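Lab meeting, item 3. Inverse folding demo.
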């Protein structure tokens, strides 16, 4: 299996990229600058958010640092433009495992940080008047497996009893009322709490447009091939960033490369693994008599099998998942960075999806409008890697969001910007301590990525090396 993961040039076309922004293929200059104080690699949600926060945090009386954003393909063409659009914090599921492993206070930091995104985002989108269809609503996590639901409920109740304020804001609906509450056939329990949904491509392009107008140099179609430490008299740390279009010297380099991070920094091999995900858009013919969904959903069949979906203002639905049809074929999804093809089995999985699962949708004639794939960066311990790459001053990382970056990245980027602008340590930001990238995490040979799947069980699976 190759560990050489770079974005392929011809990714599938997701719904979210069907209205390309004027900056989609933008290059601020014909040639690359020889030197830039800050180079950010990756123009997705993470890269654009870091640049946005840096520009917002510099002292208005001094001139801002030179920033160059290097993107291998079009602007925002990675996971951010291929996702489910779900801004859904975790308040009880992975949080309960974190509480068991690290204590409730440490887990509560993560829960609070994620939940903060939902309303902070609303405030920011309103303040900046960003046209990105951001809606705050309720997430309904529908459970189909009684035993798994019982385990989740135990974890939920334990967090509440232990004082986790974020979990307390959630609600559990039991088997007697779950179908009626959720509108989902066969529901045996539901957890509900605040969440949002968004057209993330539009959000990122708004940030990039503002950044370009502020003098940030955006270079699309510029894959970075290599990063090396270099002694340059003109710069504080000095990194050499080699691209297909020549080198750039920088004092600070930010890896906003999510799934592809380990190809540039081998320390992340096996720690951030590219995982292929599938999403689709389901449309409803005009005049169809269905009561439109207003809430977001996760439909969870068991510990490893779940789908997630959001309603859109135009009456369509974006659904992601379909894990049950490809999970046994490990090579089709694990350690895969090619988003240029869609798995046939996944396409058929979504046939009749709304009719099968939602009350009142049986005669809707809802149909699949488009299916696409995207590459997620799964971290071996399920937590993102944020901060200075151990032992590499001036090289920072913001990656490994494990298919769950929407409620983590914007405020994580604010913390990374603080580390760069104010030169403070990770501990002086407000980031959850578990998110810090550390040598201890990089040295840990264990991996959970394959552990919670039906192909788990072997020692190789636990090491993420199947
Ligand atoms: C199918 C799918 C569904 C998802 N659904 C959800 C969801 O509903 N909710 C949720 O919270 N999260 C979801 N996610 C995850 C979420 O989209 C990510 O966590 C988030 O978008 C990551 O943002 P990013 O900027 O770190 O990565 P990306 O958006 O992938 O951006 C990284 C960028 O770096 C560029 N790059 C990489 N290597 C190089 C290089 N060598 N040189 C130059 N450029 C490079 C890439 O081209 C890419 O544009 C989903 C992901 C997928 C794929």
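The presenter then showed the designed sequence:
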């Amino acid at each position: 299996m190759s560990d050489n993961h770079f974005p392929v040039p011809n990714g599938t076309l997701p719904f979210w990229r069907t209205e390309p922004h004027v900056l989609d293929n933008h290059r601020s200059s014909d040639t690359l600058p020889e030197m830039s104080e800050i180079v950010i690699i990756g123009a997705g949600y993470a890269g654009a958010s870091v640049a946005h926060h840096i520009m917002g945090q510099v002292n208005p009386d001094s001139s801002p640092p030179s920033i160059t954003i290097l993107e291998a393909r079009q602007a925002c063409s990675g996971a951010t433009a291929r996702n489910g659009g779900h801004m859904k914090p975790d308040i009880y599921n992975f949080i309960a495992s974190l509480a068991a492993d690290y204590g409730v206070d440490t887990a509560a930091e993560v829960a609070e940080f994620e939940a903060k995104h939902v309303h902070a985002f609303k405030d920011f989108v309103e303040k900046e008047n960003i046209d990105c269809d951001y809606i705050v609503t309720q997430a309904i996590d529908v459970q189909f497996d009684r035993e798994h639901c019982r385990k989740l409920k135990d974890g939920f109740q334990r967090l509440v009893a232990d004082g986790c304020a974020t979990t307390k804001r959630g609600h559990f609906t039991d088997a007697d009322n779950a179908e009626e509450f959720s509108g989902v056939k066969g529901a045996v329990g539901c957890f509900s709490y605040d969440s949002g949904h968004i057209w993330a491509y539009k959000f990122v392009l708004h940030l990039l447009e503002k950044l370009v107008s502020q003098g940030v140099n955006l270079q699309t179609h510029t894959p970075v091939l290599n990063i090396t430490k270099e002694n340059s008299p003109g710069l504080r740390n000095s990194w050499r960033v080699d691209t297909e279009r020549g080198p750039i010297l920088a004092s600070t380099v930010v890896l906003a490369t999510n799934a592809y991070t380990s190809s540039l920094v081998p320390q992340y091999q096996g720690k951030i693994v590219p995982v292929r995900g599938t999403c689709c858009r389901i449309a409803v013919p005009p005049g169809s008599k269905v009561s439109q969904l207003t809430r977001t959903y996760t439909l969870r069949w068991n510990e490893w099998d779940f789908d997630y979906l959001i309603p859109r203002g135009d009456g369509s639905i974006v659904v992601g998942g379909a894990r049950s049809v490809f999970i046994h074929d490990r090579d089709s999804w694990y350690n895969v960075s090619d988003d240029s093809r869609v798995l046939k089995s996944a396409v058929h999985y979504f046939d009749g999806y709304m009719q099968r699962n939602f009350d009142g949708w049986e005669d809707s004639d809802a149909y699949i409008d488009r299916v696409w794939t995207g590459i997620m960066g799964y971290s071996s311990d399920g937590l993102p890697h944020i901060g200075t790459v151990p032992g590499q001053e001036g090289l920072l990382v913001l990656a490994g969001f494990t298919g769950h970056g929407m409620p983590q990245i914007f405020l994580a980027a604010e913390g990374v910007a603080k580390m760069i602008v104010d030169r403070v340590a990770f501990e002086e930001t407000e980031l959850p301590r578990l998110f810090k990238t550390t040598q201890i995490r990089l040295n840990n040979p264990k991996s959970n990525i394959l552990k919670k799947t039906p192909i788990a069980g072997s020692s190789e699976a636990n090491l993420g090396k199947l």
